[in-house]
UniProtKB/TrEMBL annotation:
The lineage of its organism: Bacteria, Fusobacteriati, Fusobacteriota, Fusobacteriia, Fusobacteriales. This is DUF4303 domain-containing protein.
């Protein structure tokens, strides 16, 4: 049964590497990338924003407030759920969370988030987030939809807190 932490991390990292490489090979400069799950621990998905995509999408909005709101919105990104089909099976071998008591549910949910964070950290070490931009110029996030305090904590661990992009993220998007 494929529910071992290391196996799940390895599989996620392998898929992340392929999917992010495909995404980043579009020659856009990305500033935000997220790997997230729902509060129910469903299979994860990625979303991202590039400067170019923000200019394209932002031109559809008539006022500056709306434009600023989409800057960190995973759901409004044209790259929302990019290649989701590659991730759709990821937690299928894990226990069904709907049948768990609160303590079991929390343990399983944290298992899934920890596996996601570990997989992202692994591909980060391989330089995946430096394909079209300097690593310091992209905020890499792991967490939940909608974002919560745990998402912010994980994101702080994954990024240099002194980078300009993290300062922007903390001021504009962090929970």
């Amino acid at each position: 049964m494929k529910n071992d932490f290391d196996e799940i991390v390895c599989e996620m990292a392998s898929i992340l590497k392929v999917v992010f490489t495909e995404l980043f090979n579009n020659n856009e400069k990305f500033y935000y990338c997220t790997f997230l799950t729902t509060g129910e621990g469903l299979p994860p998905l990625i979303s991202a924003w590039s400067e170019e995509a923000l200019k394209r999408e932002g031109s559809l909005y008539k006022n500056a407030d709306e434009y600023r709101e989409i800057k960190w919105s995973y759901a409004d990104s044209p790259y929302y759920a990019f290649r989701y089909e590659r991730f759709s099976h990821i937690f299928s071998s894990r226990p069904l969370m709907a049948t768990m008591n609160e303590k079991e549910w929390e343990k399983e949910f944290l298992f899934r988030l920890n596996a996601m964070e570990t997989a992202v950290r692994q591909v980060d070490k391989e330089g995946i987030f430096s394909i079209n931009q300097k690593r310091e110029d992209i905020c890499v996030e792991v967490g939940t939809m909608p974002p919560d305090k745990l998402t912010t904590e994980i994101t702080k661990r994954l990024n240099n807190p002194d980078s300009l992009i993290m300062k922007e993220y903390m001021a504009e998007a962090a929970e």
